[in-house]
Q: What sequence folds into this?
């Protein structure tokens, strides 16, 4: 079942790339069915474990698949985002786009259910390929594609080196999700930074982020939604299941460095988002800021912060995907993304404006939506870890977030109808259904975040330091 | 849980409370989803929901005031996020009072809005937002924990944002909405910070745990918590220096100003401090700080209220000033007095706003008092409504305002703050001046609507709240029946006059009997000045204020030369007052401009040239070495053959000289 | 270890092989006709083969002979492919100069 989970989208995507014809309804339909099927499979295979031998020398590596607690929510997020993104595809050549989206889903699924470091590294590189080709074929400039692939492959290479070193040192790479594999010693810091830099590139965090705004702005909106929402979480997921469990000493030793990087990302992204004139770049830089917060949470190693991080990973995925899809609709209608030109969507397309509003509010952390719960719990954890100054920076970034989000969607939604831009009809049923599940999930998790919060603490085998405050996780 | 769970109310199942809380949400969703189908019925639906919520509040009275083994009120658990993060509803006397005002005054304002918003193109959307606001505000006051309070806190900010920016095609409304929202988020963040500190100490977000541990925090932490909470309160309740959004918020429709920016939402800060009374009571420094800021705000609001020309801005600054009183009251520890002022203020300020709405509506959206005048005969009902409101706010004995305001002023003295006492009395005089100034300029003399704005010294009519956008906001000539708007105002006149009598009777008054279980009976040292003296001194200042206003605007001579006088005053106004002490400018320069500058540096300099520059250096080095190697690939097969031969020769030479081992 | 076969010393065999090899090398580097270049390459192969066989005989080790056969097979395959390429190139231009065919230059 686990194998089917990975292979289904990969096979479906590959077959689709080989077919002919550009029937939009057909390919969209197949894509949605496949994505939803992976969702069902993920539920069915939740407690399965599957393994086949791979390497015996120079170290043991297995094709080992299994679904961890955090991975489960990421898979749900991934399947949901893919289904929505496929449904939102409105290209004249949908076949290749849907096919690449399914390939992207399959490779990322593989990443999330890998229980072996080498397998993880393999999928880590594979998942770059569909995005690269989409960028090359449909991006705004081939340069963006190359920048994306080189940056991320460089990260993947480091990951591979670190994996190999880990395997040689430890004897096996079949270690994800099983306790008692922590390493230490002379090589541990090197291996740790190998992994950490790879993950920081993927997340991205300052100063390794410069591939990101171009990539997100250049990708077609449905793909940008999946990449921004889920692919960016591969690094954070790696921190949870690799850096944190295999090198707990190193992450504790270098937590200051990670906190500094995260804090810089947090502020840097927020102020940069404040002045962008391209709507998608606002979201891109806001991602830098929000994911910086998660990096801090991971670095503090506080149970509360980690629980919040798990929730925020999911929440960020949901609102980023919703925003990219929504902005895609705006771009399709108005043929521009420039905040200087866009205005008055609220009057001409009230439903679209409503969708953008909810997504934007989740992004700025409106109390009651999922993003807020994540931020609140993370920063509570940061305060518990004693980093009051970081917490202050974090809450400042929350205020900045409200400023740039309002600037973004007031710019698009408010004002008189723009008569110099085309006026198209409001959201169709298909477009509405493609964005609604994401928004509903944001509302639901805002009220009832318990299950996802718990997954963040399950990821740690044991709390690295006992909390003084009397808050203990289940 | 390390600590035992302290819950403030009697835990149980209270279906009425749940219904009261969720009904407005249902109304909002219905109006939002089925607005086009409901049309005018949306207004009646929303109003019905508000009245039903009020009825449910009254029906929950008994459970809200019950007392069992030290637990006061009703507590309804809702959901559990994590250990220590339990959400629930709490109805105790304090939240009961707020719920009554929110739903009661709210229902009347809903009714009024049906008339006021008649013909607006987004009629149903307006009522969806209004009901949503009720829900949000009820969430705020009914939560039994800080996170629920913060959720409500954020949602009322959102509702306020939507309603300020309701006419979203007006750039000024959009800008005002954004400003209000961002400042309020700054406040939210303050409360968030308090939550972090409380959770760190107690491991729980519940009020009960936080207050039970009040004496274990230690002075530094307690002060930090109080200051953080107060940042939230100051932003929401428009306290100096976070008040600048409130006057701008008057861009919203007038019923919104009445409900959100006068009666309920802006008093959330008062609620917060009254709710956290156990924390404040433990910290004298926090009391001094909050009391002082309340006093400063009362004074600032009054000073700025004296120089405004837009009728809604006069009321806005007066709101700010009155909330200053409330904050001063609850800040220094006179919780019952501060809350009482909220109670009476909700009635007379809502009435003033609704009365001004009658005028604005009748004059097709004219808001500048310089272009009014002589409206006493044309709008007699509005005049009576405004007159009662003005008398109440000035603290004329017998009307509601006098009881609560005197209680606050006396409370400041009783709790050992003579300076705040003096500020309170001085502000009362100034309040009387600017309210009567508004009354005289608006209702007496001759109508000045036909006079050219520049004659009256109005330099920028488009910014002065004039009727320039009268037809832009979707109103048409078609008007609702007058009783729809007059009835709520008439109903409000009753509590505006009589609500204060609940405080009559000193320690045995109904008010004290209601709140003593909540705040306890304060035992205070004897003070040299009795309540009667305070009342008389205040009254003297009020009389002086009225007299000055009369001399400047009310005498027959002044009425005759009104045009010339208004022009002179407008043109000659001190810049420092016209610019509201430059607080707005300073905030703009300090925060907005700075962060935008940082943003520009980051995205135009740092990102492309420094961070990405390093990456590009690497790329250039790679490309350079690539070019070097590439130049060897000439494409001449024979050249490759030579390379090959040379390579072989090198190997051969190596082995020849070294030998093979 | 034998020092001569059929009365001819090993040195002579080796001298012949090197002469053949260098003739081939010179032809491959200096001539611009692809057919001549191919023949020159064959010459170098055969020089190597000769050396393999001589040493195999000298050290009584069959590996050298096996390698010679391998080289012959590879040479045959190489010739087939190379001739195919030459034919294709000839088709587009009647006169072929290998220096003109440099599409793959860097």
A:
């Amino acid at each position: 079942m686990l194998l089917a989970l990975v292979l289904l989208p990969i096979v479906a995507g590959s077959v689709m790339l080989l077919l002919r014809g550009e029937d939009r309804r057909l390919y969209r339909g197949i894509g949605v069915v496949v994505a939803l099927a992976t969702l069902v499979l993920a539920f069915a295979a939740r407690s399965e474990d599957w393994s086949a031998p791979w390497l015996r020398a120079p170290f043991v590596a297995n094709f080992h698949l299994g679904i961890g607690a955090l991975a489960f929510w990421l898979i749900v997020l991934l399947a949901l985002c893919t289904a929505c993104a496929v449904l939102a595809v409105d290209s004249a050549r949908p076949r290749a786009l849907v096919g690449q989206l399914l390939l992207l889903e399959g490779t990322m699924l593989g990443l999330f259910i890998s229980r072996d470091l080498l397998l993880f590294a393999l999928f880590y590189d594979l998942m770059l390929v569909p995005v690269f080709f989409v960028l090359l074929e449909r991006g705004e400039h081939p340069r963006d594609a190359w920048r994306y692939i080189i940056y991320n492959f460089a990260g993947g290479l480091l990951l591979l080196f670190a994996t190999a070193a880990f395997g040689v040192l430890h004897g096996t790479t079949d270690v994800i999700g099983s306790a008692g594999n922590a390493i230490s010693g002379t090589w541990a810091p090197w291996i740790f930074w190998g992994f950490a830099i790879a993950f920081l590139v993927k997340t991205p965090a300052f100063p390794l982020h410069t591939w990101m705004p171009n990539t997100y702005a250049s990708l077609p909106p449905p793909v940008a939604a999946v990449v921004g929402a889920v692919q960016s979480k591969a690094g954070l997921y790696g921190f949870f299941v690799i850096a944190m469990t295999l090198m707990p000493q190193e992450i504790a030793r270098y937590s200051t460095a990670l906190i500094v990087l995260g804090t810089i990302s947090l502020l840097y992204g927020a102020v940069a988002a404040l002045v962008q004139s391209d709507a998608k770049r606002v979201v891109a830089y806001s991602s830098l800021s929000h994911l910086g917060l998660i990096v801090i949470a991971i670095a503090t190693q506080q149970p509360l912060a980690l629980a919040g991080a798990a929730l925020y990973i999911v929440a960020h995925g949901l609102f980023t995907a919703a925003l990219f899809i929504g902005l895609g609709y705006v771009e399709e209608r108005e043929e521009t993304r420039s905040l200087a030109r866009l205005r008055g969507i609220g009057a001409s397309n009230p439903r679209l404006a409503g969708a953008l509003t909810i997504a934007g509010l989740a992004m700025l952390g409106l109390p009651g939506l999922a993003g807020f719960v994540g931020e609140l719990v993370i920063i509570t954890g940061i305060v518990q870890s004693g980093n009051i100054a970081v917490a202050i920076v974090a809450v400042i970034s929350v205020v900045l977030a409200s400023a740039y989000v309002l600037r973004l969607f007031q710019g698009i939604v408010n004002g008189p109808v723009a008569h110099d831009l085309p006026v198209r009809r409001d959201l169709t049923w298909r477009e509405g259904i493609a964005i609604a599940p994401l928004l509903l999930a944001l509302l639901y998790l805002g009220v009832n975040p318990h299950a996802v919060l718990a997954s963040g603490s399950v990821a740690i085998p044991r709390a690295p330091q006992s909390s003084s405050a009397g808050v203990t996780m289940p | 849980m390390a600590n035992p769970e302290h819950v403030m109310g009697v835990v149980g199942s209270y279906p009425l409370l749940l219904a009261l809380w969720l009904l407005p949400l249902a109304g909002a969703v219905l109006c939002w989803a089925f607005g086009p189908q409901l049309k005018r019925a949306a207004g009646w639906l929303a109003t019905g929901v508000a009245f039903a919520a009020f009825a449910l509040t009254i029906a929950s009275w008994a459970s809200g005031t019950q007392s069992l083994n030290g637990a006061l009120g009703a507590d309804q658990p809702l959901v559990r996020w994590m250990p220590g993060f339990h959400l629930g509803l709490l109805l105790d006397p304090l939240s009961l009072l707020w719920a009554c005002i929110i739903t009661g005054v709210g229902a009347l304002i809903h009714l009024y809005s049906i008339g006021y918003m008649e013909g607006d193109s987004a009629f149903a959307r307006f009522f969806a937002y209004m009901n949503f606001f009720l829900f949000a505000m009820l969430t705020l006051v009914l939560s039994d924990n800080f996170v629920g309070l913060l959720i409500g806190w954020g949602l009322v900010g959102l509702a306020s944002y939507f309603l300020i920016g309701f006419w979203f095609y007006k750039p000024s409304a959009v800008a005002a909405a954004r400003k209000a929202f961002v400042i309020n988020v700054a406040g939210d963040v303050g409360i968030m910070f308090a939550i972090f500190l409380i959770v760190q100490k107690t491991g729980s977000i519940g009020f009960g745990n936080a207050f039970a541990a009040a004496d274990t925090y230690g002075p530094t932490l307690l002060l930090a918590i109080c200051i953080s909470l107060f940042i939230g309160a100051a932003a929401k309740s428009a306290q100096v220096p976070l008040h600048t959004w409130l006057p701008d918020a008057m861009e919203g429709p007038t019923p919104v100003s009445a409900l959100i920016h006068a009666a309920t939402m802006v008093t959330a800060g008062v609620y917060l401090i009254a709710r956290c009374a156990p924390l404040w009571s433990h910290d004298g420094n926090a009391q001094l700080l909050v009391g002082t800021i309340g006093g400063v705000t009362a004074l600032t609001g009054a000073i700025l209220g004296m120089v405004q020309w837009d009728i809604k801005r006069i009321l806005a600054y007066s709101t700010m000033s009155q909330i200053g009183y409330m904050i001063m009251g609850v800040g220094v520890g006179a919780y019952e007095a501060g809350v009482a002022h909220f109670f009476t203020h909700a009635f007379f300020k809502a009435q003033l706003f609704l009365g001004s709405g009658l005028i604005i509506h009748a004059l097709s959206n004219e808001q500048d008092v310089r272009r009014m005048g002589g409206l006493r005969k044309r709008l007699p009902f509005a005049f009576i409504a405004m007159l009662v409101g003005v008398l109440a706010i000035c603290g004329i004995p017998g009307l509601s305002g006098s009881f609560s305001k005197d209680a606050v002023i006396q409370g400041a003295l009783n709790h050992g703050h003579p300076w705040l006492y003096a500020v309170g009395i001085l502000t009362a005089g100034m309040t009387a001046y600017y309210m009567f100034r508004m009354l005289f300029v608006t209702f007496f003399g001759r109508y000045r609507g036909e006079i050219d704005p520049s004659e009256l010294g109005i330099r920028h009519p488009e910014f002065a709240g004039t009727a320039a956008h009268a037809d832009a906001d979707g109103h048409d000539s078609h008007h609702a029946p007058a009783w729809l708007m007059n009835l709520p105002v008439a109903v409000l006149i009753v509590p505006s006059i009589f609500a204060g009598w609940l405080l009559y009777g000193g320690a045995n008054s109904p008010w004290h009997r209601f709140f003593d279980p909540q705040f306890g009976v304060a035992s205070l040292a004897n003070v040299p000045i009795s309540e009667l003296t305070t009342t008389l001194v205040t009254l003297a200042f009020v009389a002086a204020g009225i007299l000055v206003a009369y001399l400047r605007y009310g005498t027959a001579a002044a009425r005759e030369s009104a045009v010339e006088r208004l022009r002179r005053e407008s043109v000659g106004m001190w810049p420092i007052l016209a610019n509201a002490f430059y607080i707005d400018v300073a905030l703009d320069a300090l925060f907005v401009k700075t962060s935008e500058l940082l943003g520009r540096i980051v995205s135009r300099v740092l990102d492309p040239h420094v961070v990405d520059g390093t990456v590009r250096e690497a790329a250039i080095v790679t490309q350079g070495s690539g070019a070097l190697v590439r130049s060897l690939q000439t494409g001449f097969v024979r050249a490759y053959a030579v390379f090959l031969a040379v390579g072989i020769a090198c190997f051969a030479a190596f082995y020849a000289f070294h030998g093979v081992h | 270890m034998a020092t001569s076969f059929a009365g001819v010393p090993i040195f002579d065999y080796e001298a012949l092989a090197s002469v053949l090899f260098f003739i081939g090398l010179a032809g491959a580097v200096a001539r611009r006709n692809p057919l001549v270049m191919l023949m020159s390459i064959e010459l170098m192969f055969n020089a190597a083969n000769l050396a393999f066989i001589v040493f195999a005989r000298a050290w009584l080790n069959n590996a050298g002979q096996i390698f010679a056969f391998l080289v012959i097979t590879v040479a045959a395959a190489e010739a087939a492919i190379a001739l195919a390429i030459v034919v294709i190139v000839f088709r587009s231009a009647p006169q072929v100069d290998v220096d003109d065919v440099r599409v793959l230059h860097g």
